[in-house]
Amino acid sequence: MFAEYLGLADDSIIKEECINKYNHRLDYKKKRFTSGCVAKTFRVCKSECKYVMKVQPLIDREYYKEYIKNEIKLVKYVCKNSNLTGKYYKDWNCNGSNYLVIKYVNGDILSKYPTKKIDKKIIKEMLKSLYRLHKIGVIHRDLKSSNIIITNDGSVKLIDFGQSSLYKKLNKYDRRMAYRWDFKRLLSTLKTKKVNKRLLTYANEYIKRYNLIIQ
Prior knowledge:
The chain is of the alpha+beta class.
């Protein structure tokens, strides 16, 4: 348990203050490597394993509570049916916060990955990862450079499934439009990254072929 690793009595008292207090036990001191509007994400170690711990306050709003539940459900589902994201470890609620822990993925998020290193192989991996996500019935809905990880071996992982949906909840038309929206968001992200025009053309051709499949 992380509480044992951090030297605490039990998981129920782990809070950000505890993380800061025991920062010498973190892989990197106070290593917060992403921070959204509300959630904060830390990298922690347990024995020889590295994990990502996402801390989200349980705001007293029904929408946000559903958002957290949905993310946990989708992470478990994606992990069970593919290797497209970090492996789920555990989650728990305590002291007004939710803690979601997954296996750390060695690599860089797209926003920090050097543009000059993005080649046709990596573009293809991005497109294939999104295609495989759709094949298991998941629509991401929030693709952006901070939600795409390029691993050290050149594969691509997707993260942050808080706004994702299972296609079974959508009718055929909405599902098709959502699939296309995912790919358009990916293409827009690559343009923002100022990827080589030749690679953008390749991505466009792939997306056009995919659109024919989902007619």
